[in-house]
Design a protein that fits this description.
This protein is α+β, with helices and mostly antiparallel strands. It contains two helices and three strands; from the N terminus they run E-H-H-E-E. The protein has helices spanning 9-14, 16-24; strands at 2-8, 27-33, 36-41. It has a three-stranded mixed sheet. The protein is elongated and about 75 Å long.
Length: 80
């Protein structure tokens, strides 16, 4: 995100379209009233794209027996 630009509330009312365009391109706009910041105009976060089931089908293979139990994984003496 680019550095914030500060604008008076009166100027913001008259230049809203331009400020929204700047915010949508990544610039943060601080709106001030009598020199005190009162609001912040920022771009919306991008909406997450829906997942596509099966989009990686056929790109990799699992080895035979990948889901077989591993008998000796938890065998052996327990240490305190």
């Amino acid at each position: 995100m680019q550095l914030a630009a500060s604008v008076n509330i009166h100027a913001a009312k008259t230049q809203l379209s331009r400020l929204v365009e700047q915010a949508s391109s990544g610039q943060e706009i601080i709106i001030a009233n009598a020199g005190k910041p009162v609001a912040r105009l920022v771009p919306l976060a991008p909406q997450p794209q829906p997942r596509i089931l099966g989009q990686f089908a056929g790109t990799f293979t699992l080895p035979d027996g990948f889901d077989e139990p591993i008998d000796d994984l938890f065998e052996g003496p327990l240490e305190p």
